[in-house]
Amino acid sequence: MGKVAGIDSSAAGTTVVVCDTDTGEVLRQGYAPHPVEGEAATSGKATESDPQTWLLSLGEAAKDGLLEGVLAIGISGQQQGLLALDAGGVLVRPAVLRGDKRAQAQAADLTAELGGPAEWAQSVQSVPQAAYPVAKLRWLAQHEPAAAQRTAEVLLPHDWLVWQLLGRPQRRTTDRGDASGTGYWSAAAGEYRHDLVELALGHRVALPHVLGPAEPAGQTPEGLLISAGTGDTMAAALGLGVGPGDAVVSLGASSTVFAVHGEPLTDPSGTITSFADATGRHLPLLKTRNAVRVLRATAELLGTDLAGLSDLALSSSPGAYGLVLLPYLEGESTPSLPHSAGTLTGLRRESMKPEHLARAAFEGMLCGLADALDVLRGRGVAVRRIFLLGAAAELPAVRVIAPPLFEAQVVVPEPGAYAAVGAARQAAWSLGRVLGSGSAQEPPAWRGGAHQVLEPGDDLATGQAVRRQYTTVREQTHPGAFAEV
User: Fold this and answer.
1) How far apart (Å, rounded) are the C-alpha atoms in residues 393 and 29?
2) Which CA distances in Å does 204 have to 124, 137, 209, 292, 404?
3) What are phi and psi of 439, to 5 degrees?
4) How many CB atoms are located within 10 Å of the residue 431 CB?
5) Does the predicted model carry a pTM greater than 0.85?
6) Per-residue confidence of the chain (485 residues) as pLDDT tens digits?
7) Rg of the chain's alpha carbons, rounded to an integer?
8) What are the catalytic residues?
9) What range does the domain containing 37 cover?
10) Where would you tag: which of 52, 92, 165, 245 has the fewest CB atoms within 10 A of its CB?
11) Does residue 85 contact residue 153 with C-beta atoms inside 8 Å?
């Protein structure tokens, strides 16, 4: 059929991939960082941005004819950024990015004002956090009232990029996936809660039209099709090719755990956030505060690096001679223990060796993630296959220990630009619908990237024994921690 492109505009830069429409093979790829100045340029922790730099980055990433011959484009954008526009479509201030933490107090205030976490979960399947646009709007109203008064419309980063590529038409659009992370769109009802915007900002604003998964946003002035676009989590899920029965565990300093589910979940405790995906399904998601930071801290303590820690762990045995590390080094969010600390138990003369502490660090981190997977399973979410992402997924100890602890097949994909590939897949889906081919319900079946498949095998009983040891310590230290989840 031809070529389609996917554009992923992250906090750091822009990735562009050009894919074969039929197979999904990546034919060409480009990348460019966002131009930044001042402290953000050296720290890498920008919390505000001039969106024009996103366009400059896109132009650089797509230079030298990268998009030549492309028939359609999809956009993946960093979720939960806030772009506040006046009545003329002009930004009233720089975009506030997902990583901005200033609205923590405002998120707590909004939660209380509506009646608590259960009321928010019932309304929009999530509870306000500092990253959410709804909390950022409250912060804007309190700290920049003049800008808040001028705000007549609110967009997300991918919405703004789609609008720019289409030539700034009168109608602005978004998709259900990105909208579900705002705190004012309900994935269950499929509609905005304008009253929650008014609660946060003090007045109502215009919000972008929510497109269906395969529905195009429009055409550029040159006639190039632009699909609905979506948030980066949803685009990555689409690029990975996950479906019902699949979960994704992303290993960073902290971790996100989500699965593909047919229905939205309402969690009164706020532990589960039920996002919509880019296909018409849902992505119930949990976060853990502690993942690779547990490994790094242990490696520093032992005077080694992650690779060395992995080697040490594999020279120990399952259960680490009874040594259990409860990995709540930064408090925890799953379960909700924000002020907790980590715990090391089972110290005996025979267990006080570097290899056993290394093994306990890997088992503690992975048992914490297995707890999160069990929360999803306990809510009726099928988890039969787990995609493990992040550089730490390459560590041999993770690959050996994770499958029996997770009690599922573990897939470790080859590193790739999955959000950009997912955006391209969405573009191919929209193109097919416009041309009268393909399914209205399912995106095109692209070939998956290279990956390694790991099975629990004969170690399943051993993994269950390690989980029991860990759970006993967790319940002794924090009894009933998961009682309300």
Assistant:
1) 24
2) 17, 11, 15, 42, 51
3) -90, 145
4) 24
5) yes
6) 699 999 999 989 999 999 999 999 999 999 999 986 544 433 345 689 999 999 999 999 999 999 999 999 999 999 999 999 999 999 999 999 999 999 999 999 999 999 999 999 999 999 999 999 999 999 999 999 999 999 999 999 999 999 999 999 999 999 999 999 999 999 999 999 999 999 999 999 999 999 999 999 999 999 999 999 999 999 999 999 999 999 999 999 999 999 999 999 999 988 999 999 999 999 999 999 999 999 999 999 999 999 999 999 999 999 999 999 999 999 999 999 999 999 999 999 999 999 999 999 999 999 999 999 999 999 999 999 999 999 999 999 999 999 999 999 999 999 999 999 999 999 999 999 999 887 778 999 998 777 899 999 878 999 999 999 999 999 999 999 887 66
7) 23
8) 232
9) 3-228
10) 52
11) yes
Do both 250 and 361 map to the same domain?
Answer: yes
Whole-angstrom distance, CA of residue 434 vs CA of residue 428: 10
Buried b (16+ CB within 10 A) or exposed e, 410-426: bbbbeebbbbbbbbbbb
Residue 99 φ/ψ, nearest 5 degrees: -75, 0
**Is the domain of 332 the same as that of 194?**
no
Q: Is residue 193 domain-shared with residue 260, that is, in the same domain?
A: no
SS3 state at 177? helix
Same domain assignment for residues 202 and 247: no
CB proximity list for 133: less than 8 A, separation 6 or greater: 80, 81, 82, 154, 156, 181, 182, 183, 184
In SS3 terms, 94-156 reads as CEECCCCCCCHHHHHHHHHHHCCHHHHHHHHCCCCCCCCHHHHHHHHHHHCHHHHHHCCEEEC
Same domain flag for 108 and 50: yes
**Token duo for residue 288:** 């853990």
Residues 68, 215 within the same domain: yes
In one letter, which amino acid is 465?
A
Is 335 among the domain residues? yes
CATH of the domain at 397: 3.30.420.40
- Note if the bond before 264 is cis, omega within 30 degrees: no
User: Could you tell me if 34 and 134 lie in one domain?
Assistant: yes
